[in-house]
Amino acid sequence: MLLVSAMAHVTEHLGIGVTAPVSYEPPFTLARRFSTLDHLTKGRVAWNIVTGYSNAASRAVGRDNIMPHDPRYDLADEFLDAVYALWEGSWDDEAIVVDPIKGVIADPHHIRKVHHHGAHFKVDAIHLAHPSPQRTPFLFQAGASNRGKDFAARHAEAVFLGEHSKARTSANVAETRARARAFGRDEHDIRFYALTTVIVAETRVAAEAKYRDYQRYIDPKGSLALL
């Protein structure tokens, strides 16, 4: 997140996505930072929503172990409900006045406190950033599980796919679109991005040499342990 404002300063048309987990901080603080980035990027920031997957990460923030898989997505659904309320519901468009003569920045009659009291989070606050260009940042998601697909179908504007065949990719897209329809969304409001690693160099020979060099670092045991 610290790099995004600098990247935005030297680019014009680049959308910048940030991966941030919902499991390790309150909705209020993350919502405020994304609003600030949306202002600084002039509406070019995206959020890749993750729930976390590592016991080590949970222990790093003082928890014994990570929450089980499906309950993490229940938490994520609630986290999104809370940040939506902050981004979309705390300030009306009419709230911004900016009248230097009267010394008024915003009309408090068009600003309201969010009250979210859920199973995992409690928010009683006004969103402290005025509405940004997007309000809610562009939302990415990459869940491939049954519960993850439901989460993507409900929230995502773009979905990362890591399938290794056209048939699996096509089936995954069709399934997620069907789930989006079940949630009352237009199935074509979701875009899909297939994982592709592109290796480039000055010439084809140099690119193939780089590819062979990369292969020397593949560790099957390490990959299996991560999987």
Secondary structure topology:
Layout: H1 4-9, E1 16-21, H2 27-41, E2 45-50, H3 55-60, H4 69-89, E3 96-99, E4 104-106, E5 114-117, E6 122-125, E7 138-141, H5 146-155, E8 158-161, H6 166-182, E9 191-194, H7 204-215, H8 220-226
Parallel strand pairs: 1-2, 2-7, 7-8, 8-9
Antiparallel strand pairs: 3-4, 5-6
Helix content: 40-55%
Largest sheet: 5 strands, parallel
CATH architecture descriptor of the largest domain: Alpha-Beta Barrel
Instruction: Give the overall shape.
Output: globular
N-to-C SSE string, H for helix and E for strand: HEHEHHEEEEEHEHEHH
CATH topology category name of the largest domain: TIM Barrel
What strand line-up does the widest sheet have? 1-2-7-8-9
Rg calculated over all Cα atoms: 21 Å
Number of strands: 9
Spans where pLDDT lies below 50 across 5 or more residues: none
Class by SSE composition: alpha/beta
How large a portion of the residues is in β-strands, by DSSP E? Answer: 15-25%
Number of domains: 2
Q: Class of the largest domain in CATH?
A: Alpha Beta
Helix tally equals 8
State the CATH superfamily name of the largest domain: Luciferase-like domain
Question: What is the terminal separation in angstroms?
Answer: 27 Å
Mean pLDDT: 94
